[in-house]
Amino acid sequence: MTYVVTDACIACKYTDCVEVCPVDCFYEGENFLVIKPEECIDCGVCEPECPVDAIKPDTEDPDGKWVEINAKYAEVWPNITVAKPPLPDADKMANVENKLETLFSPNPGEGDQ
Predict the structure, then answer these.
(1) Domain spanning 3-85, CATH class
(2) String of b and e for 64-102 (b: at least 16 CB within 10 Å)?
(3) How far apart are CA 89 and CA 78, in angstroms?
(4) pLDDT digit string (tens) for the chain, length 113 residues
(5) Where are the domains of the chain?
(6) Which of 48, 59, 78, 79 has a Cα at 20 to 30 A from 13?
(7) How far is 37 from 72, CA to CA, in rounded Å?
(8) Torsion of CA 100, 63, 94, 16, to 10 degrees
(9) Which residues form the 4Fe-4S ferredoxin-type domain (predicted)?
């Protein structure tokens, strides 16, 4: 099992999860975070830190869509280990549904700079 970041993170990008990760397996996109499945040690400490419940075990991803998205973008986005402020409209965007189709950006974030 591994953990994955799902749709709820898009356009919110709370980073509370990155500071508690003992193996630094989070990667930052412009408006989304991902977990690199090969680096995740399945400890689960990140899951309760997410204020929008965007982090799920891969067992809750029956078609593997989120595992695939997390793996793909973790290869090209920079690593992030330090919390940053969420996106400006994060609270407003937290309950928006189907954000992957309408709001997701494939562009990288800044990572730890």
Answers:
(1) alpha beta
(2) eebbebbbebbeebeebeeeeebbeebeebbeeeebeee
(3) 23
(4) 899 999 999 999 999 999 999 999 999 999 999 999 999 999 999 999 999 999 999 999 999 999 999 999 999 999 999 999 999 999 999 999 999 999 999 999 999 97
(5) 3-85
(6) 59
(7) 10
(8) -110
(9) 1-30, 31-60
CA R_g for the chain: 12
pTM of the model: 0.95
Rounded CA gap, 47 and 96, in Å?
A: 20
